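Tutorial, part two.
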Amino acid sequence: MPKSKKKEKDSFDPTNMKPEEVLKFEIASELGLADKVINGGWRSLTAKESGRIGGLITKRKKELKKEAFRMEGQ
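Running the prediction step on this input gives:
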């Protein structure tokens, strides 16, 4: 029984995403990993793929902060 609970928890639900997950999924889609995530959940990704997504999330967040700072100064 614990395996089925774990399986449910690991599955990907595109209708119930938090804002952070939306960004994460956008980046996964850009990298061509959307189908893999939908079919196998986030745990189906390799460490390299996950690291790539994490790095791009960090980069995108920095860019958004810079843009917000620029807009604030105008």
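The chain has one domain: 13-73. In part three we will examine how such features are distributed along the chain.
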